[in-house]
Amino acid sequence: MILFRYELAGAGWADAHLGDGTTSVEIPASYLCDALRDLVDAVQSLFTTNSAECVWQEEPGEAKWIFLRKGDSIEIRVEWWNETRTDPDRHEWQLVLDKVMFSGEAKLLDFASQVDQELQRLLDRWGLDGYLREWVEYPFPVESHQRLRQAIARYQTAGQSESTGTVSGTETK
Q: What pTM value is reported for the model?
């Protein structure tokens, strides 16, 4: 099981914490992108696709989240990419993979539920106005949170239908 936590860390800064009991890592997020919304959208999309990515931009560099779905499980990989100058005279830069910050597997429902719980915890603690004051550039991802909750509910309902032999309340033979 992968544990997920998300903390606002000052005006325009946040940290995601990932751990699997053996390894734990802190992944910084900055105001350069709507990090939490991008993460929630990526996780939510895994209910209907087999892969998703999101990128948290930093200066210089970025954290790239890669999600691969395998049945009811997901593989989560977070890579750190450094921005390196390729031509000093032209101020040209390129991203180069520096390291894999985290890699692990979890049940899709477990991880998505943790993300949902973190969103609710942030909302309870900060409220919509407080979140915007603390995060600065982007509002709390209300719509993304709702879509994630709906995806979780549909997934749970589909699982219950399969285990009881019913589809939309009709018994299957």
A: 0.86
Domains annotated for the chain, with CATH where assigned, are 3-163 (3.30.2450)
Using the 8-state DSSP alphabet, how is residue 47 labeled? T
Q: Which amino acid is at 115?
A: V
Packing angle of the helix pair 142-164, 108-135 (nearest 10 deg): 170
For 40, the token pair is 């929630």
DSSP state of 149: H
Structure tokens at 125: 């603690």
Tens digit of each residue's pLDDT (9 = 90 or more) over 69-110: 999 999 999 999 888 767 767 777 778 778 899 999 999 999
Phi, psi of 21 (to 5 degrees): 95, -25
pLDDT at 82: 85
